[in-house]
Structures are given as structure tokens and as C-alpha cells.
Write a structure and sequence with these properties.
By secondary structure, the first copy, chain A, is an alpha+beta fold. The first copy, chain A, contains four helices and five strands; from the N terminus they run βαααββαββ. The C terminus of chain A is likely disordered.
């Protein structure tokens, strides 16, 4: 893969699914996060659910796990792969709910898009379940935090405060 | 729908798909936006593609349109409906690409989730196609800007500067 | 529809999707149930989960709701329709977990298959989540209990004996 | 995997997809069965079809095979895998039609859920195609009969009469 | 719809799903056909199957019916709609198998793409099932033969020459 | 696999998914083509789009790539596999648009059906986007041109003029 251009376009600018067949399968992991910003009253409704029956976050967790398995069906040039594990967890703060998704596989290509898709769909599910009480919610900060395995090696997102994190 | 609680949970806190059968079908529209924040070098690569063959944005547009049709398959408590039209467009700024999705239908339930899902998946597709050159991209500002039709009437997101927009 | 033969086969015995276009849309409802028979130790593990975080049943509920929306994609001659509501609930007894699904719509065709599919997939999900502790589980008693709306009117399953076991 | 608890829940009771990446791929096979109980007149209608054009069972066979490939899409914590073969067959008795599904793969995880799902969806398809003549049908006895391969080795369901089979 | 341009592109040449919400639902029907050209030995193998158990054509029929329901999921700018009926039939000639699909609905948009997709996927299924004996098969003559309903009224394909070959 | 019969039917003529588990994964490639025959005015509309924004062909390319990933979901007895790369390209002639799809994988089974499905769905997408100006289009000449890898070795379709190509 070139460092100098968009590998999903061929030299004539046409979309293509990059060939991964020359690569060997290896263990790969990716960690992504997203936040659903909302009114403090809304986070507290979610939190109360989390303490009793937990259904907003339970439903969002299932939606995120299922979406990880469908990333290549949703994103046109994303390679299909067999997910080995998915974890989707949540952290509730005053003004947002944070979603974290970790995906692992043994395959020829990485699982960033699976982790990003899991976060996005879990966040959309939270939005859907809370929109009757708070229509001003915003989903943001969807980004890759860590990636290991594969030829490009380990990537870790620079932490807040060093100027590269827009959150 | 009650203003006082999460309508997707029943009184015992269990997830449910709200009954829309008593409603009459009516014309509904929703407009949502998302942004993919990236290095200026990356936006200019996208823009160059946009000027010649346009494939990053063409692929993302198709992905967004297809995702709008699958919103209820991705989001557990979202009602299935028949989309009457979808438009997905883009605006390229120095530090981000903005996605805008507008969805219309004649149905018993609104199309916010369809528009939000179209934006999210179009943004994920841009991320996927650009990640080989810029791993620090962040998807954010996914939110509903306008909604018309249905019992709750018209909703317009307050514009930036009046204190309700967290971006 | 004829009472005298299999309407999903034409006079030459070939599979067909029966034409529902001459019918008018009307309100329809169906109620189905299934049971997952298991060791008492297993039901008590499920019950403990149900009391604290509830995840076996929460996951099964989401799986059942999602499956209801996909009935026509799974069952070849089943008509697609737009589900207006789905409820999936559970009852834990000593030797089984009972799943109940109720589906409503306003459409040209009934929702029996949607309710039956929701029960089946919720039961399969319970089986999947409990199989590491109890491989001898059996899913059974999947049947339609009630159906209203449509030309054939209301159907209620006859209660046999004490009314709890339809087999 | 622990024998002592539900491996699909983490220690805090949250749903997770168990990590199979440390396992090596190996040959695995599973055999499951289901029964659709119906009036003798209904089994004889199915049987007559089976003798001429066979469409009820042909359609159910295709539905079962397709469903085996979608097990992980239907069952939230089920791992995706690549099915190497599926056979779906039927046996017609006086009061029921029995479905048998056998699935094989070379993968890191077993194919029980694929075989169980194939049986369930084939049975639902038979139900759908016969429901115009017999609304009282019941689907039952969906269970795993045999499983080979993987760390836990061979499992064979105890035959009727020794007290472990509820049929 | 304009006669003067591609309605699926907006004035700037960008893909869009045409808005059908202003239309009223009405009864619509479409009839399409396709042919799988093959060696006479291959058609006779298919025909023999058709006479005994009929599985090549039974499987292809189910595949075509299922594909009709997924047309809008496969074809990006195709509107989702609820199919009211699908018939898929076959005619075996010396050098080809002909597939015919008829689709009906009551909706705001036509069912040409559903009928064309049913034919295409049924033909691909025949190809898949026969390719081990005849790799030189060619699928062709996929075209719309008739269309009724909707604002544009009835369309019937002009018969060229002797009326059997539309190419 | 036998050369003497349809391997997708068992000795009793029942549909089955052939067992590929005894095979070793190896690199495989397939190349297929299809043509959409249309009026010269229509090809020139497509070509003009191709020169400016390219959206008919861009949309068809994405549809073809996505369809390659879903071949086993559409074609009942087709094995699921993980696609390693897909290229979909086009050639515009006076009276037709030619689609070419090349698919590669490292797996136990070939990718002919993936390449054929990509061509078919890309062709259907072109048909859908052009049908408002030209209803007489015909999709044809869908065939396999090359196949490498696997036990049966390399296959190349005989070129036009030697009597084996029916186009």
C-alpha cells in the first residue's frame, strides 16, 4: 500500500477493493470510541435504566455487536472478515454516554472499520431510544484509539492535550 | 409519545418497539448532517478526487443511500418503513468533509434514524477510504437538523451561537 | 384462499408467493409462544441474570425483535410487510423459559410468521447463551396462540387440558 | 470456556462475544433435528407434494440451507464462520415432519447454532406453507443430536428412554 | 419523470433516489425473462431433474423469489416496496432454460427491477448448479416484457422478427 | 467432484451444498463479463456522465462490489467465502456497456459466482438508472471468461469466432 494516496482508488481514480490475498492471516485488534452528547437529564435517565434493567445500554450493546459483523456489508470497499470477539462497553458522564468497542480477529486485514461501525451503530441506537426526550443530542468523537497487528504495526491515538485530539 | 420517559422502554424497563399502528400515514422529512474531521492534506485529496472522477464521495453517497434503507435492520427498536427519496450530499472544508442526508417518506413514523444512519455510514465510508493516509480522522457532529410531518410537527435545530449547539 | 389445499403451491405443485394485492390493508395482530426446556440449574442461572443485569433475556429480546423484521427475508414465500410494533417477553419456570412475542401491523397480510420467527430466534439466542452449561436443552412448543384481523377473522388456540401445554 | 457459568456474559453480567482467536481452526460437524407436529391430513398433503414435485420440502430445504449461512447475523453473540457444507433432509411420519440438518466447517468455533438455525427456519417454512390448511401446528423437539471437533470433543445426545430426552 | 435525461442523476450529475412520495399507491405488475444458454446435454440433465424431483429449478425458483424481495437492497437507487406476489417459472428448450418472473404490488413505484432481479438471480442459481458439468454457459436476454400500472401506463416489449428472441 | 452429474444434487436428486472442508485453501481468481445492450443515445448519456461526474458507472461499480460480497447470500448452494479483492470496470461501446468483474480470494472454493454476481448486479444497476430513457435495454452475455486456482486448474473461455461463444 502506498503512503502517498488513497489506496481505495486505482491510478485512474476508480474505486476498488484493495487486494489482501498476498498477506498472511495474523492476530489483529482495534479499539474505537464514540460519544453521544445529551442533556444531563437524559444521561440520568439512561443511568437509571443501567442501574435497574439496563435496557438502553443492553440494546445498544447488542446493536453494536451485530453491526461489527456487518461492517463489510455496509461499507463498500471494506473487506469481509470473520470476527473473533467483540466487546462493547459504556461509560456515563454528565453530558454524554461514551461507547467503547474492541474487536479482535485472525485475518489478512485489520478490524478498525468493525470497531468504528460497532461504536457508530451503538451510538445511533442510544440516540434512537432517547430521542423522544431529547432531540438535540449529537453523536461525535467517533475515532480509532488503538490498533495492533498487521504490517503497519501498533497505532495508538495521541492523548488529549497534545494538540492532535480534537475532542 | 410521552415527554416524561423513554418510550422505547415499557413501564418495567423492558425494550419494546413502540406501536405505531394507530397513526395515519403522512408525509415526513428529515435532514441530518455529520462531519469527518481530517488533515487539510486529506481533504484536498478528497477534493481532487471530487473534481476529476469523484470516487470517494460517489462511493460514500451510495453507501449512505443504501444505509438509509437498512436503518431498521441496524437499529433494534427502529420501525421499518419504505423510503420515498434519499439525497446525500457533501461539502468540503479545510479541516472536514460535511455529509448531509435528506430522507422523505409517507408513513406512520418519522425518518430521523434513516437520515442519521445515512450520514453515519457515508462518514464511515469516507473514513475507510482515507484511513491509509490519515489515521487520526474523527467523525463527529452527527445530528438532526430538521424534521417535518407527524404529530410532533416541525423541528429545527437551533443554529450555532445560541448556546444549544455543542459543536 | 382455498380451504382445500396448500395455497403456497400452484395447481401444478410449484411454489408461489400468493397474491395479496386485491386485499385492503387492515389492522392485524398475532401472538406466538415458544419454550426452551433446560435443567433447573440453567433456568436459575438465567433467572439470576434476569434479576441483576438481565442480559440473557435482554439479548434474546433484541434478537427476537430484529428477527420479526426479517421474517420475509428468512421464509421464502412469506410476504414482506411493515411491522408496527413488537413485544417480546419471557416467563421463567423450573424446567423452561417461555418466550412470548406479539406483533401488530396495518397491512394486507397477517403477522403470524413474524411472531413465530421472533419466538424461534429469541429461543435460539437463549440456547446459544446457555449451551456452555447445558447442551441438552430442547426448544419446543413454538406455536400460534392468537391472531386477529384479516378476512379469516380471529383465531384463538384451543386450550388442551390445563391450558398450559399445547402439544 | 468455564463449566461454571454463562460464557456469553462477562463477570459483570454484560453480554459479550467470547474470544475465539486463540483457538486453531479444526474440522467441526453438528447435527440437529426439529419436528413440525400437524394433523395427519396435513402430513399427507406434504407427502403427496413430496412424491410429485416436492415443493414444500424443496422450499424448506433451501430456506434451511440459507438460514445456516445467516446464523451469526440472527443470533447476536454467535460467531461468524464459513460453512463448508450443509445438508437438510426430512422424514414424514403420521403426525409430524422431521427436519434434520448437518453442517460442517473448518473453523475456530463449532456449528451447533448453524445446524439449529437451519432446522428452525426449515420448520418455520413448512409451517408457513401449511398454515392455510392447519393452524394448530406446533414446532418442537429442536435440539442438537451430535457434535464433533473442537476442544470439547464429541457430544452425542442420549437416546430416548434414558431420561434425558424430553420428547 | 423527464423523458430527456437520467432521472437518477440530479442536474449536477449526482446520484439520487428519485422522490416518489407525491405519487399515489396503485396496482402495478411487471413481467421479465432471462435465458441460460447451455449445452443440450446440460438442458437434458436439468430436464431430467425437473421430471423427477425438480431440484435445480425448485432451488432457482426460491432464489428468484427471495431476490425479488431484496431488489432495493442490491440496486442502490431502487426504491424499497412491499411485494404482493411473485411467480417464477421456467421453460426448457434444447439450448437454453428460460426464466420468467412476474411481480405485483400496490405501491408508489413500479416493480420492473424486482422482476429483472428475480430473473437474474434465478439464472445465476441455475448456472451455479450446472457449472460442474458445463462451464461455457451464458446468461442472456434478461429484459422487461410487460409492465402495467403507474403514470406511464402499460408497456409491452415489441416482438422482433419471429417474436421469440428480443435481442 | 464428478464430471458426470450435477454435484449440487445428491444421488436422490436433493439439493445440497457440496462439502468443501477436505480442500486446502489456495489462491483463486475469476473474471466475468456482462453487457447491457441499449440505444446509442443511451450509451452516449452514460458516456457523458462518465466523462463529467461518472455517476451511473460509479454507482454500478459500488453495487457490483457489494454484490460480490453477497453472492452466497443470494445463491442458495453457493459457499460463503471471504473476498480478498474485487475490481469492477466498464467499457462503453456504441450499442452496449460492458461490465467486467475480477474477484480474488484465498479459500477452499472458487469465486466464479462472486464475479458473475458482481457483473449481474452492476448490469441491473445500469439498467435501473437508464430505464427512464430506454425501456428496451437487454442484459446479456453474462459469462465466465477466466478462472485460476483450485483442483480443476485454469479455465479460459474460448474467444469469439471459434464456435464456442454464443455471443
Amino acid at each position: 500500500m502506498s503512503d502517498h494516496g488513497l489506496t481505495h482508488l486505482d491510478p485512474l481514480g476508480r474505486a476498488r477493493m484493495v487486494d489482501v490475498t498476498p498477506k498472511e492471516p495474523s492476530h489483529r485488534r482495534a479499539l474505537a470510541r464514540a460519544r453521544v452528547f445529551m442533556q444531563p437529564e437524559t444521561t440520568s435517565l439512561v443511568a437509571r435504566g443501567a442501574l435497574s434493567k439496563g435496557d438502553v445500554l443492553s440494546v445498544a450493546r447488542v446493536a453494536g455487536i451485530q453491526a461489527a459483523k456487518r461492517a463489510s456489508d455496509l461499507i463498500p470497499l471494506c473487506h469481509p472478515l470473520l470476527i473473533g470477539s467483540v466487546l462493547v462497553n459504556f461509560r456515563i458522564e454528565d453530558s454524554y454516554v461514551e461507547v467503547e468497542a474492541q474487536v479482535e480477529t485472525v485475518d489478512r486485514t485489520g478490524v478498525e472499520m468493525e470497531a468504528m461501525t460497532a461504536c457508530s451503530v451503538a451510538a445511533l441506537t442510544i440516540y434512537d431510544m432517547c430521542k423522544s426526550v431529547d432531540r438535540s443530542m449529537v453523536i461525535g468523537d467517533i475515532t480509532l484509539w488503538e490498533k495492533t497487528g498487521g504490517r503497519s504495526g501498533t497505532y495508538r491515538r495521541a492523548v488529549e492535550g497534545d494538540g492532535t485530539d480534537p475532542t
